[in-house]
Amino acid sequence: MARIELNNLAHQYAPGGDYALQPMQHVWEDGGAYALLGPSGCGKTTLLNIISGLVQPSEGRVMFGDRDVTTLAPEQRNIGQVFQFPVIYDTMSVFDNLAFPLRNRKHGEDYVERRVKHIAGMLGLEEVLKRRANNLTADAKQKISLGRGLVREDVAAVLFDEPLTVIDPHLKWQLRRKLREVHEQLNLTLVYVTHDQTEALTFADKVVVMLAGQVLQVGTPQELFERPAHTFVGYFIGSPGMNFFDCQVDGHHAVVDGEHIPVDPAMAEAARSAGGKLQLGIRPGLIRPAAADETALTVKVDKVEDLGDYELVTGHLGQHQVHVRLEESEKIGSEGLRVVFPTENALLYADDKLVG
């Protein structure tokens, strides 16, 4: 296992060209489960390939603990890798597929059998160990691929590149849960690439959100949800994403289309100092209905969707569209929905970055 340090790391595929990865400085702790999350083309696979050694960065260093691995080939980095499509030997048995990385490193057969059975038990492959891999379902083949990445005890890290893409949706949650169980039991450093926020938030201890080659925020799922460091993080995380309103700051209030909304005084002061384009952000589920005697904002309702446990209201506050998550018992008045933006949940952004 290893602590992974990305030291002033950046990458250009062509000298003098655009950065595929913007300069970054990050430390991922030993034994952590990390997800690289972002849309297609944001740089997450490039970053994973640099960590694995498939790509050598044009700038900076990659450290595994105290060891500089920047120029080392993948086989010299002592890592396990699991790719989007299963990498297995169809003509071999499941047992021999799992054993291959261990036998390749000259481990004794007693150790190989013990280790293979241990990993097979974790992944639910015990019943098919003697079967040839080519006769198995796609999800079973991906389990074998996962097992090949996990079977070695001495790996510095295990890297996953969208490993559940080819799996049927109803089976994905089972494999995500299995990966969490494996991580808790083995305490390996895991790095998981995905464009799916559900996969990232349910798998990882910390999520690395990327856009256009830049790491926008590294945080726990709770941190990303409660205090997005960038408007893209707020928009990308959550369903629906965060509401954003162009605003100005007047005293301790954000002014949205003439409406004065109380915000944290320190945040208001920081926003004034920051300048630039100002926006107010708040999660749909953190907007609450106003009490009868409470000063409120009025949302003009356009649509109400019944989503089972709650209702999603889509409406307008002034010229801005707004989403509000309501309990089914809440009533909408004839003139619209009266709501309050709690001060502790109303965040200010200057040029897309959280202030304060």
From TrEMBL:
PROSITE patterns: ABC_TRANSPORTER_2 (PS50893)
Keyword Isomerase: no
GO MF terms held by the record: ATP binding
Alphabetized UniProt keyword annotations: ATP-binding, Cell membrane, Membrane, Nucleotide-binding, Transport
Keyword Ribonucleoprotein recorded: no
Domain ABC transporter, first and last residues per copy: 4-237
Pfam family, one: OB_MalK
PANTHER family assigned to the protein according to its UniProt record, in alphabetical order: ABC TRANSPORTER ATP-BINDING PROTEIN (PTHR43875:SF14), MALTODEXTRIN IMPORT ATP-BINDING PROTEIN MSMX (PTHR43875)
Protein name (Swiss-Prot/TrEMBL): ABC transporter ATP-binding protein
